[in-house]
Amino acid sequence: MNYLFMTDAYYPKPSANGNCVREIVKNLRKRGHRVFTISWEEDCQIQENTDDYTIKTWYVLRTPSVYLKSNVKKKLISLGGAISHNLSPVSYWSYVRQYLKIAKTIIKETDIHCIICAQFPFEAVCAGYILKKRHPNLRFMTYELDYFSEASEGNLPTFIYRFRKIIYKTWYRKIYKLTARVLYMEPHKLNYERENYYGFKEKFFGIFPPLLLDLELRTDQTERFEYQKVMKSHSNIKMLYSGVLLVNVRPPISCCRILAICNNSIPLHCDFFSRGDYEDFLVEQAQRFPGVFHPNGYVSQKELAECIRNTDVLLSIGNSVSEMLPSKIFSYMTYQKPIIHFSQQEKDMAADILKYYPYALVIPDNISDYEAAKRIVEFIQQFHTKHMLDYKTLLKKFEKCTPDYTADIIEMCR
């Protein structure tokens, strides 16, 4: 079959959606399917396949305000976002037009059987909806790493919130009427069981981020069993965090504070491969604790993978307000190394998943910094006597978290 995927940042510096889509695309191509992709153009874009296309984006417009250093730009972007998102889930119609333009060319030259659009960005979903209207024989699916919702009331005035609910409900009901299947994240199941979704439940199919991979297919087999040797080969314990850090969503403040205490007992080397609202904060921490904290910015997937292989412990910071499941948890598991997760709310999806991963430590937010540091030090020390997992053992517990599983589900929708 011929598939067309539409998503946002793809490769070599993908978003969470782009990372998941890429693994699915690679798996489907291995099975003999022809798969086209349309994603956002990046400065460092690498075209892995001639069937990969990009749309042009104005970086300032598509960048959340917290990524910008200019206060004026932050206020302008925040104001524009507040207005556009209360009127429509589509922020930039120019993106929709570009998705459609490239898709039109692809469909004209190739017999596309199925279009799969990632949510986020909603512009991709909107383009898929329009293509389905124009080509009724196409199968239209949405891939929802983040669920499409009218969102919570938050600090919105009541009249705006009610208006927003009506707008969003109208949008997603239109879209779901045309979808053949909606692939959503299983931990978000309760959201899809709301009464607003009645009438579409037969289209919903719960999956997990397809990021649990077999390293034997990618690296030297012996590399997977070198953990004990690495722990003893250098004086500092190497820790690594990768991902976005945002104000009021995923702050690293308590994480850094606790790790600084741990450094008094065990010398640490903490690398942060991040972007977002806390880059200046991480620089300050690096100056305050020389040799402990190392902000590296956002790097390519290839660079990040190499750094993870040379790391002892992987760090995860939970969301403080959002119930979304961070996909990086499954990427971390691929490397079969210890994971320390800093939980920041009671309903923490990542903490629930990590209960089934034997080499994970969850630090709740209701204990003191010194108690948290004590648990981390004890957790690190115990790995001198433990053997690492192999992929087959992980697969028994997390079979649904592989690209194979998601590709199987997509192939079933014919």
Features:
414 residues; alpha/beta; Rossmann fold
Explain briefly what this protein structure is.
Helices cover 41% and strands 18% of the residues. By secondary structure, the chain is of the alpha/beta class. The radius of gyration is 22 Å and the shape is globular.
Task: Explain what this protein looks like in three dimensions.
- The protein has 2 domains: 2-212 and 400-412, Glycogen Phosphorylase B (Rossmann fold), CATH 3.40.50.2000; 215-395, Glycogen Phosphorylase B (Rossmann fold).
- The chain is built from 16 helices and 13 strands.
- The protein has helices at 16-30, 59-62, 71-87, 93-109, 122-134, 158-178, 189-192, 227-233, 253-262, 279-288, 301-309, 328-334, 349-354, 369-381, 391-397, 403-412; strands at residues 2-9, 34-40, 52-55, 114-118, 139-144, 181-185, 204-207, 237-245, 268-276, 293-295, 313-317, 339-342, 360-363.
- It is globular and about 65 Å long.
Give the secondary structure arrangement, pairings included:
Layout: E1 2-9, H1 16-30, E2 34-40, E3 52-55, H2 59-62, H3 71-87, H4 93-109, E4 114-118, H5 122-134, E5 139-144, H6 158-178, E6 181-185, H7 189-192, E7 204-207, H8 227-233, E8 237-245, H9 253-262, E9 268-276, H10 279-288, E10 293-295, H11 301-309, E11 313-317, H12 328-334, E12 339-342, H13 349-354, E13 360-363, H14 369-381, H15 391-397, H16 403-412
Parallel strand pairs: 1-2, 1-4, 2-3, 4-5, 5-6, 6-7, 8-9, 8-11, 9-10, 11-12, 12-13
